[in-house]
Structure formats: structure tokens, C-alpha cells
Design brief:
The protein is of the alpha+beta class. Helices cover 27% and strands 23% of the residues. It contains 23 helices and 36 strands. The radius of gyration is 28 Å and the shape is globular.
Length: 822
């Protein structure tokens, strides 16, 4: 958008979609690699192993009776595959029989599956083995061949069978630690939870009363030794997975003051504050010093909270106050020296989540996050807010994989429990400061920190345009990061593998560093940081800060400003607008040239996400840059004749400025489409395939090509859904799309852009939004299959900087929601 273009509100359009029945063609499922077996030898070997398991189950029953443990009888078995062959683990589970798949691990090419088998149900496996040995199908192959021949061995499950964390952090024998215990669902999750709480102390475990509840798991903390936890897993029949509990960092960088208090007094004289209904940036941090003159009018005392009732709400460290200044004003170097009016559209809230002294007792940080957000909501239930959290872990576990913390964030944002969606902005986490002289290698090998891998969160990394180092004060010092590139502090998802979202989603200014010629190390320089509010008022009113925390605070500010301008926009929509407005800087693109292959483009996304968001683009349309906003919902799945299948597709007939586009003819134009929705998580580690996918549902978009009829367009969407379920790369209409369907379908925030001629764009006025497979459909016993899925769809048409109006023709056909003037 040109700087001198008139600022026009985006157009919120309704009634564009027609709901059409959508049924993906049957596929028969993906083919699996199964080893060749000697039928008799293999079948009898597994039968003998199952008989051993039956004897183990009888011994466990006697031990339970001796301890007075009254829990459901049965045994946990471990099934394993041969190296480099598939285990048909989805066929091990039988919900109707109470047989439950607990955990799936892949170690050195072998797949291991832990399965709970209730008392009396071992016969189901014995029968299958006997049928495999003696019966054949109509095609002349042994019955259950694919299942039985995929199994190399069956054993009673030891503690390692439940371990789904990094193998390197498995506690040593005799070591007393806090464990993250993931309880199985069973037929009565509350009873299983109660049984563990009651009987685990008999084995010597100390159980924390706090718990997280997911549709398929209950998660709590217990303290004890490896031997005690192994005993509980065998005797109580309640454990599905075990992981090591985590600590959160407590140390934040202390910055020097760089400016004088006169700036503050002058700035307050030209600051306009919003009304009582303004949205808020809600900071989950170290508290805020409300006595700061730049913050006092925007942070009411009743909007200051702490997670623990015994803590005070003031800032004990300084980090929270620094984030408050950025969350309210942005970088103060942009507004203090300018002399322009400072017009605030939002206020602040603060929830202190770190203790004044020491560190939190081992608790579930997901529960802390959920409870802290709830405190702010109880105090101001009608207020719209963007929650900003710059607290992450520093260990290397769960980077890229769901954790209890990231899953709790996905649960909270999705509204799965109360139908209230939330917008959470999370920092991507910071690299090891002692390694930043190795830039950019240190960024590429340091994965984004837990919980920033959450699918529904807006994950924010850092880039920098800061490039001034005073040569007189710092002779010989050199910039660590070139302007326009990644900040030295910003983590990336370059090392992640698997079907996870590409993070960060966007990057904002996080400051730069300089190389000390004396030591060779990277160090902070005030001129390369961001100016913000200081906690230590007797010392100075202003200080400097940076890193991904600063980037996240600025992004939360942008979100709150969008909420103020468009009060009817959903959290999914605000997240979409931020990602939709993002662009890569020329320096980012240059560093990843030639950007021809999918791998090169994926590498760029894993470092910068969609790039640097532009507040003007996110906030406004222009006469030659039209943004349409659609908020809708569909039912992705249905039950028909006791079978569960995909149900609805939305075909949107977009109010298109076709006549104007035809007049432009061969003029090059650009279209960008962004789809945003929140998934409900299923964080149990059971392979994340088939019925055990992490995401409740998936949505995808496709745009009609100029030469397609609507029927041909439908057929192409069906083919794309079929390919995705088969695990094949989608084909679709990719040549003129920058990312294409293979890259843009990761996570739950999808964005892509098309470039072509205006005449071609004139014929692309239909967009399809359709469902792909998720656990809502594949695990119908959890009773989520009939839920609606909300989504936001953003479409922007950009024409060259010429006197051609694409906005007005569409506006005349749309009832626009006019934003509050900023």
C-alpha cells in the first residue's frame, strides 16, 4: 500500500458461502511395509509370548490384592516391530473391548507401542494369533496377516514403554524427580484420575493435586524414583505416558537506562488515552511497576493480578515493566522524539506468573497459563484482549513436538471447554547468549522453545533493522546481524522434522548485537536495542531491552490495535490479519535465494515465518488494495449409517471486481489468501498418525482457476483431500502460487499468494474451504465428531500503483463493518 493512499476499512463480507456435501473418495488407507514371515514359526512364537503375558497378569493381580489396590485388572503390553518396518499399531486398539493404545515410540528404526489390555481381553489377541495360523481369507492369505506379521515381539511393558520424552532425560535408577504423568482415558477418565491420586502414594509417590484435562488424557505431576514410577505403571493400570517435568527460566537480562525523564513528561502531554471499553494487552510476566508515569493511566490496579495469591502484583525483576512499555507504545524511540500525537487504542493487564523469590514449585505450566488468563477474564469478562507471554523453557525437549504446556495453550485458545476463543502471542524463545558470535549458525541449530510450538498461538521471532554502533565509544566493534535479517537472539524451527507447523509465524524487531574485538564475543549495545519503560524508577524512567520477548510484546500491541479497530473480528481473524500482512525484507529473500525449490522456501519459513507484519496493511485497505474478510463455520464431519465421514465444504463466491480486472487485461496483479482456525489438541504420543493425529480437524483452501468449471473445481478439491489422507503430496493448482499446497497446509494458519494477469484473476472468484482428516472424526468415542469448526478467510487483491479502483465496486455490494477511528 502506498503511503499516500487513502486508508479504507477492510470489508467484512457475509453470505458468500454455499454449504455443499463433501465426501472424500475412499482410499483404502495407506500401504504399509510388512516383513516376510514364516507363518508357523512366527505365529507360535507370538502365542508363547502372549501366554507369558497372561502369567504376568495373574502375578500383578496378586500383588494388587496384597497392597489393597482396587483398580481395573489387566496388563500393559509392549508390541514392537522389526527395524525399518511398520507396526500396524492402529489395529492394536479396540475401544469396544477396552483395549487402549497408550504410547508409540520410534527408536533406532523400530516402532514400539504400549497397549493396555483389560482382564479377560487378552483372548482377543490369542484368537487373532490362532486365526492367523489356521484360517485364510477369500484371497487365500492368512487372516490378520498385516497385523500379525508387522509384530516382531510382545512383552509386558516396562517403564521405558511409557517414556515419550527425550531418552537422554530419563531419570537414573534411584533418582528422585518430578514426573509428568499422562493418565489414560479408559471408560471413566475421572475414576482413573481418582485411582492414581488415591493409590500412587501407597507406592511412595507424592502426587500434585493440580491437573490438566484433555479429551484423551489427564496430565498431572508426581514426585518419586524411577523404580516407584515403574511400580505404579504396572500396578495401577492408569499411566499412558511418562515425561520429565520442566523448569522455566527465571533470569532476564537487566538493561541500563539511556534517556532522561524529560522525554516522559513531554510525551504524556501529547498522549490520548482510550475509553473504558478498549481492548487490552494482557502480560503474563514478572508483574508491572504501575507507578511508572507512562503506564499508570493505562493499567488499573484492579487489572493487576498474580498467579499465586500470596505474591504481590508489582514487578520484582523489571522484565514485565519493559514488556508493558513495548506492549503499549512500541519502541519508544519511534514516538518520544517525534513530537506527534500519541493516540492509544488499548490498555494493559498484568498477571504475575513468576515468583518474587526463587522459582515456581514444579507445576504444570499449562495450568499456570490457563489459570492466569482466567484471572484477567474474571476481572474484566467483556474485554477483548491479546495475551502476551514471553516466558518459555530453555531445555531442548519437545521442540517441535506437542508438550503439556503447548497443548494447554492450544486447548485454551480453541475454546474446547467453554467455547470462548483466545488470542495468545508467544515469544519464540532466545538462543544461548554465549553462542551468538556464531551467528547465524547458532540460530539455525537452536530450536524454538516450548511452548511456542503451539499450533494456535501466534509465535513471534525477532529480526532487526538496528545498525548503528558509535565508533568512538565502541572502536572496532562490528554488527552481529546484517540489517533486515534475523536477530541474533531468535530461535528457529530449522531442526524440526515431522508434520508440525513451521514456526515462527512472524518476526518483529528484537534488536541487534555487536562483536567485541577484544573477546570475540557478542554483546549488547544500547543503540542496537529498543527503548522502553524501566522498573527501577529512582534510577531511571527509561531503559533498553530486546530479544524475542520484545518482538512478542510489539506483536501483541498490533493485535490489540486491530481488536480496537475491528471489534467484531474473532481471535482467529486477528491472527490471520497479522500473518496476512507480513512480508519478507529484501535481505531475508537474498539470504535464501534462489527460492525456486520447495526446500528453499521451507527453509525461509522456518527462520522468518511469513516475515515482518505491516500494521498499515493489517489495518487498512486502499483503492488499489482490497482486503475482504470472511468469518464462517462448517461441520467437518458427520455420522452416516454408523460410519464417520467428512461432511461439509464451503464454496465461497467472492464479490469480485471482475469488470475492473478485465479492463486491466495483462496488467500484473497479486492475490493473497490466508486461512486461520484453531484446532483442539490431542497431545498423547501415539504416533500422531491415523486416528491419533494431534489436530482435531484440518481445513484447507483452494482457488478456482480461470479454465475450471465449478464442477471441475469440486473434483480437484476432492482429489486434494484424498491425497492428503493417503500421505501423498497434494498437487493442485500450484504453478503460480508461491508456496503451493504442500507448504501452506502446515499447522492451522495457512497463507499463500498468487501472481498473474488481471484478466486471469477476474475468473478466480471462487474459493473452496474444505475439511481434511482429524481426530474428531477418527476417535468418535470422544463425542466431538459433530462439532462446528470456525475459520477466518482473508483475501487481498493488489493492483499496481495506478489510478484503478478495485475497492469501490465491491464496497457497493457489501455491508462493511466500519471500524472505530484510530
Amino acid at each position: 500500500m502506498a503511503e499516500d493512499s487513502p486508508r479504507l476499512p477492510h470489508l467484512l463480507v457475509t453470505g458468500t458461502s454455499s454449504v455443499e456435501p463433501f465426501t472424500r473418495p475412499g482410499t483404502g488407507g495407506p500401504r504399509r511395509r510388512i516383513p516376510q514371515r514364516d507363518r508357523q514359526a512366527h505365529g507360535y512364537a507370538l502365542l508363547h509370548q502372549l501366554e507369558d503375558a497372561r502369567r504376568d497378569m495373574e502375578i500383578l493381580g496378586e500383588r494388587r490384592r496384597a497392597l489393597g489396590v482396587d483398580v481395573e485388572g489387566g496388563i500393559c503390553l509392549q508390541f514392537e516391530s522389526d527395524p525399518d518396518f511398520d507396526l500396524k499399531f492402529d489395529s492394536l486398539e479396540s475401544i469396544r473391548s477396552g483395549i487402549e493404545l497408550l504410547a508409540v515410540n520410534e527408536i533406532e528404526g523400530r516402532t514400539f507401542a504400549a497397549v493396555f489390555v483389560p482382564h479377560g481381553k487378552l483372548e482377543r489377541f490369542l484368537n487373532k494369533m490362532n486365526q492367523y495360523l489356521s484360517e485364510e481369507t477369500a484371497r487365500g492369505v492368512p487372516r490378520h496377516r498385516d497385523l500379525v506379521e508387522s509384530i516382531a515381539a510382545i512383552h509386558s511393558a516396562a517403564l521405558e514403554a511409557f517414556w515419550t520424552d527425550d531418552p537422554g532425560v530419563l531419570p537414573a535408577p534411584g533418582e528422585t524427580v518430578w514426573w509428568e504423568v499422562w493418565l489414560r482415558r479408559g471408560s471413566d477418565p475421572a475414576a482413573i484420575h481418582a485411582a492414581f491420586q488415591e493409590y500412587a502414594p501407597l507406592i511412595g509417590l507424592h502426587v500434585n493435586a493440580q491437573a490438566l484435562h484433555f479429551p484423551d488424557r489427564t496430565v498431572l505431576l508426581a514426585r518419586g524414583t524411577r523404580e516407584q514410577m515403574a511400580e505404579s505403571a504396572q500396578l495401577l493400570n492408569t499411566v499412558a505416558e511418562l515425561r520429565r517435568a520442566k523448569d522455566t527460566p527465571q533470569v532476564f537480562t537487566s538493561m541500563r537506562a539511556v534517556e532522561q525523564a524529560e522525554w516522559v513528561e513531554e510525551a504524556l502531554g501529547r498522549t490520548q488515552f482510550p475509553g473504558p471499553d478498549a481492548p487490552a494487552v494482557c502480560l503474563l510476566d514478572t508483574g508491572v511497576n504501575r507507578g511508572h508515569p507512562l503506564l499508570a493511566a493505562s493499567l488499573r490496579s484492579e487489572d493487576m493480578h498474580s498467579y499465586h495469591p500470596e505474591w504481590n502484583v508489582a514487578d520484582h525483576h523489571g522484565h514485565g515493566t519493559e514488556m508493558a512499555g513495548l506492549g503499549l507504545y512500541g519502541d519508544l524511540m519511534e514516538c518520544l522524539p517525534s513530537g506527534d500525537p500519541i493516540v492509544l487504542a488499548h490498555c494493559l493487564e498484568s498477571v504475575k506468573i513468576l515468583p518474587p523469590v526463587g522459582q515456581n514449585d514444579p507445576e504444570l505450566y499449562g495450568a499456570i497459563t490457563m489459570e492466569s488468563v482466567a484471572r484477567a477474564e474474571v476481572a474484566a469478562p467483556q474485554r477483548r484482549r491479546s495475551v502476551c507471554m514471553a516466558v518459555t523453557t530453555t531445555d531442548f525437549r519437545d521442540r517441535g513436538r506437542p508438550s503439556s504446556w503447548s497443548a494447554a495453550i492450544d486447548q485454551l485458545t480453541s475454546g474446547a471447554e467453554d467455547d470462548e476463543r483466545h488470542l495468545l502471542v508467544i515469544s519464540a524463545g532466545n538462543t544461548d547468549s554465549s553462542e551468538r558470535h556464531q551467528y547465524p549458525d547458532s540460530n539455525l541449530t537452536d530450536g524454538i522453545h516450548d511452548p511456542a510450538q503451539a499450533w494456535n498461538a501466534l509465535t513471534v521471532g525477532a529480526f532487526t533493522e538496528k545498525d548503528f554502533v558509535d565508533p568512538h565509544e565502541y572502536p572496532g566493534w562490528a554488527l552481529v546481524a546484517p540489517p533486515g535479517c534475523l536477530s541474533p537472539s531468535s530461535c528457529t524451527s530449522t531442526t524440526w522434522t515431522g508434520p508440525w507447523p513451521l514456526k515462527p509465524d512472524v518476526v518483529l524487531e528484537g534488536g541487534n548485537m555487536a562483536l567485541d574485538p577484544g573477546t570475540g564475543g557478542a554483546d549488547n549495545v544500547d543503540s542496537l536495542q529498543l527503548l522502553t519503560t524501566n522498573r527501577d524508577l529512582p534510577r531511571a524512567l527509561l531503559t533498553v531491552t530486546g530479544e524475542t520477548s520484545a518482538a512478542a510484546a510489539q506483536c501483541a500491541r498490533m493485535c490489540a490495535m486491530l481488536q480496537a479497530s475491528y471489534p467484531d473480528y474473532w481471535p482467529e481473524t486477528v491472527r490471520a490479519l497479522v500473518g496476512h500482512s507480513a512480508r519478507w525484507t529484501p535481505a531475508m529473500v537474498e539470504a535464501h535465494q534462489p527460492l525456486k525449490t520447495r526446500g528453499e522456501k521451507e527453509g525461509l519459513l522456518k527462520v522468518y515465518g511469513f516475515g515482518v507484519p505491516d500494521l498499515g496493511v493489517a489495518m487498512w485497505s486502499a483503492s488499489n488494495s482490497l482486503t475482504l474478510v470472511i468469518q464462517d463455520s462448517l461441520q467437518p464431519y458427520d455420522r452416516v449409517d454408523e460410519r464417520y465421514r467428512t461432511r461439509d465444504m464451503h464454496l465461497h463466491a467472492i464479490p469480485w471486481p471482475a469488470e475492473v480486472l478485465h479492463e486491466l487485461g495483462e496488467t500484473p496483479v497479486r492475490m493473497r489468501v490466508t486461512l486461520s482456525y484453531f484446532i483442539e489438541p490431542n497431545p498423547a504420543r501415539r504416533g500422531w498418525k491415523y486416528r491419533h493425529r494431534y489436530a482435531s480437524h484440518g481445513l484447507r483452501f483452494e482457488v478456482k482457476t480461470p479454465t475450471e468449471s465449478v464442477d471441475q473445481f469440486r473434483a480437484r478439491i476432492n482429489a486434494a483431500a484424498r491425497d492428503e489422507e493417503m500421505g501423498q503430496l497434494p498437487q493442485g493448482d500450484a504453478p503460480d502460487w508461491f508456496l503451493g499446497p504442500q507448504l501452506r497446509g502446515r499447522g492451522s494458519l495457512h497463507s499463500d499468494w498468487w501472481q498473474g494477469t488481471a484478466s486471469d484473476l477476474a475468473e478466480r472468484g471462487h474459493i473452496g474451504v474444505y475439511p481434511v482428516i482429524g481426530w474428531w472424526r477418527e476417535r468418535p468415542q470422544l463425542d466431538r465428531w459433530s462439532r462446528l469448526a470456525r475459520y477466518a478467510l482473508i483475501v487481498t487483491i493488489e493492483t499496481p500503483e495506478i489510478e484503478m479502483d478495485v475497492y469501490t465496486p465491491v464496497m457497493t455490494h457489501v455491508e462493511a463493518v466500519v471500524p472505530v477511528e484510530i
